[in-house]
Specification:
By secondary structure, this protein is an all-alpha fold. The protein has one domain. It contains six helices and no strands. α1 crosses α6, α2 packs antiparallel against α3 and α4 runs antiparallel to α5. The longest helix has 45 residues.
Length: 202
């Protein structure tokens, strides 16, 4: 009876964490969109480049919101947020510095390449935080790549150029905003599964 109660309590805690994680990631995704707009204005004024706001803004927004949940559930520091901003921003910053860019319809593929590079680096950096909390932490690297790439694939799917009506704008914004839910669900499922395992002995 006691074992059954503990299993039920653990399952409920896992569901609570997953729900909080998805909501936080979605909120952080929206915050990231605001950060991208603000950083875009700054970069335009400084004539530095127009690519770094995407990675830096989204990485910081999501990282900040996730950290707010993670610090209470498994005791991570604000390094979670700053690593997220740095990892997702670095490929875009390097693109601005080296003036590497693609034009036209190829722009979506260029952004996805940078997202993949940033997510890979993010997974490696956050794995170093999680490995003391779970022996399954290495799965977080793959989780970051999949979790960040899926929204990028959805957002940048060819749409055939819908008319710029109010309805189309609302639809496009909804698709972009849904990226936070996708990232939250994917990473949240893996996080709960990871935290159910024993910490690594290393």
């Amino acid at each position: 009876m006691e074992e059954h109660y503990m299993a039920t309590e653990s399952r409920l805690d896992g569901q609570h964490l997953h729900r909080r994680w998805v909501l936080a990631t979605f909120g952080g995704w929206l915050l990231g969109l605001v950060a991208v707009i603000l950083l875009g204005g700054i970069s335009e004024g400084m004539h530095f480049g127009n690519q770094f706001p995407v990675g830096l803004g989204m990485g910081w927004g999501v990282g900040f919101a996730q950290w707010r949940v993670a610090r209470k559930w498994f005791g991570v520091t604000s390094a979670w947020m700053w690593l997220s901003a740095a990892a997702m921003g670095m490929p875009f910053v390097l693109s601005d510095i080296t003036a590497i860019s693609w034009a036209g319809n190829e722009q979506r593929y260029f952004i996805m390449v940078n997202v993949a590079l940033g997510a890979s680096l993010l997974g490696l950096l956050q794995w170093r935080i999680l490995r003391s909390r779970s022996h399954r932490a290495h799965w977080w690297i793959i989780t970051c790549i999949v979790g960040w790439m899926l929204p990028a694939l959805v957002i940048f799917l060819p749409t055939g150029g819908p008319p710029k009506t109010l309805l189309a704008m609302i639809f496009n914004f909804s698709v972009i905003a849904s990226g936070g839910v996708v990232l939250g669900v994917v990473s949240g499922v893996m996080l709960v599964w990871m935290l159910k395992s024993r910490p690594s002995a290393a």
